[in-house]
Amino acid sequence: MPNNFLVTGRPGSGKTSVIEGAVALLRSRGYKPGGLYCPEIRERGVRVGFKMVDLMTGEERILAHVDQPVGPLVSKYRVNVPNVDTMSEASIARALEGADFVVIDEIAPMEVHSEGFKRAVLAALNSSKPLLAVIHQRTTTGFIGEVKSRRDVRIFEVTPSNRGRLPEELARMVEEVLRWKR
């Protein structure tokens, strides 16, 4: 039975909202999430970057920003690789140690510039804990392609027709894995 549930879809399709909905349902049922969210940073209504937020501690760091002076360029954003290394390794390790399930938003071109991120993602994928993650849709090669092709993952594409029911479906599957483990 797969225990790694990956959500993909077009930009703006609601991938993060689906994961947030599943996390909220699982929290309301008494389960403890851990891992990372990467929300947008907006200034005067314009997206200028992304931050990383640890679900267990609330710690935040810049993932990428238009004003970031150094780092790999992805679209118009420079990635702060040291922040990604530190946050992903600590947050995902903390989740593997003390959470019921792991959340990673998201496995995408910005994040994979970090070797620490890739190691932490592999640790989560290889663990027996359920993983809920958003994964970049178009990429089929490299690290992202390898994650997508694993036999222990199940990929869900968010569409307008399934967006409303996916949070409950994902929450149910995570609960099944958690009950099966006990």
Could you write a compact summary of the structure shown?
This protein has 5 helices and 10 strands; from the N terminus they run βαββββββαβαβαβα.
CATH superfamily: P-loop containing nucleotide triphosphate hydrolases
Tell me what the CATH architecture is: 3-Layer(aba) Sandwich
Q: Could you tell me the mean pLDDT?
A: 96
CATH fold title: Rossmann fold
Give the % helix: 25-40%
Question: For the report, how would you describe the main beta sheet?
Answer: 10 strands, mixed
For the secondary structure, the number of strands is 10
Number of domains: 1
How far the N terminus sits from the C terminus, by CA atoms, comes to 15 Å
Radius of gyration, rounded? 15 Å
Could you walk me through the main structural features you see in this protein, from its secondary elements to its overall organization?
- This protein is α/β, with parallel strands linked by helices.
- The chain is about 35% helix and about 30% strand.
- The chain has a single domain (about 5-180), classed as P-loop containing nucleotide triphosphate hydrolases (Rossmann fold).
- Strands 1, 2, 3, 4, 5, 6, 7, 8, 9 and 10 form a ten-stranded mixed sheet that branches.
- Helix 1 crosses helix 5 and helix 2 (about 80-100) runs parallel beside helix 3.
- The longest helix has 18 residues, at about 80-100.
- It is globular, with a radius of gyration of 15 Å.
